[in-house]
């Protein structure tokens, strides 16, 4: 696990904090933007392209190896993410949705890969870029297929709602569609990866400090507990990483469907 220990005194342990998310440029005197998270994002993109190329460049009738993995991921995204929201339009959007799912999944898994150990979705800018892209697609599809007026009418219209109630309902649903949906899309992913990284760093630093740095009869129990919690939290974090990739892609599918169908 990524272990960051701030030491102000040789005999004091300090919990890791926001310094976990502060990175200097990769090269002395290099561009300020070229940091470890940016390198991880580039590496993740290469991995996604490599996996898709290995799986689908030369497909066989009987899938094996990478093709089996690729087809499993494709079927999972199609049946569990695309079709429930997009229905007959699912196949048209599979390229985008599969890319989003694999990208976010690899971003998240990087948090537990040795020597990398940083989930780039914990940097709010990266999931925000994906969410804003999906948001732009949603608005474009809504206006293109229904026009501005028709798109807004489809969002606001609620069968059976009295006319007087639209003064209360319309602002709320419009705020949900055009504001809340955007922020909740990327904030959910960011918050989970941010919190998970902090927790893993906390427990791993406890284990490292009390077992390797300051081994004492009283502290060894705390150190062992830190190691056990690190193992348990790593297993739980792996589950969360997959779940958050699924939820992010599922919301992307739902937002695209809302633009196509002109409804919320």
UniProtKB/TrEMBL annotation:
It comes from the Bacteria. It is a multi-pass membrane protein. The chain crosses the membrane at residues 38-57, 93-116, 122-143, 189-211, 218-236, 242-260. It is found in: Cell membrane; Membrane. The keyword Zinc does not apply. PANTHER family: ATP SYNTHASE SUBUNIT A. Belongs to the ATPase A chain family. This is ATP synthase subunit a. It comes from Nonomuraea rosea. The gene is atpB_1.
């Amino acid at each position: 696990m990524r272990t960051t220990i701030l030491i102000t005194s040789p005999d004091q342990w300090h919990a890791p904090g926001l310094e976990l998310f502060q990175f200097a440029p990769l090269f002395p005197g290099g561009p300020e933007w070229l940091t470890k998270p940016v390198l991880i994002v580039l590496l993740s993109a290469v991995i996604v392209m490599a996996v898709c190329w290995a799986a689908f460049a030369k497909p066989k009738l009987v899938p094996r190896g990478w093709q089996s993995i690729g087809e499993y991921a494709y079927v999972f995204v199609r049946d569990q993410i695309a079709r429930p929201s997009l229905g007959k339009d699912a196949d048209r959007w599979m390229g985008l949705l599969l890319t989003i799912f694999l990208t976010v999944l690899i971003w998240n898994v990087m948090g537990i890969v040795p020597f990398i150990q940083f989930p780039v979705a914990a940097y709010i800018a990266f999931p925000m870029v994906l969410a804003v892209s999906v948001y732009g697609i949603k608005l474009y599809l809504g206006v293109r297929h229904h026009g501005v007026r028709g798109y807004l009418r489809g969002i606001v219209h609620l069968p059976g709602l009295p006319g007087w109630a639209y003064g209360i309902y319309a602002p709320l649903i419009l705020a949900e569609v055009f504001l809340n949906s955007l922020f909740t899309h990327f904030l959910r992913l960011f918050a989970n990866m941010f919190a998970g990284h902090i927790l893993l760093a906390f427990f791993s630093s406890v284990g490292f400090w009390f077992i390797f740095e300051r081994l004492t009869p009283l502290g060894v129990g705390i150190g062992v507990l830190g190691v056990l919690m690190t193992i348990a939290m790593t297993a739980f974090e792996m589950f969360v990483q997959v779940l958050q990739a699924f939820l992010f892609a599922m919301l992307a599918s739902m937002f695209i469907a809302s633009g196509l169908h002109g409804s919320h």
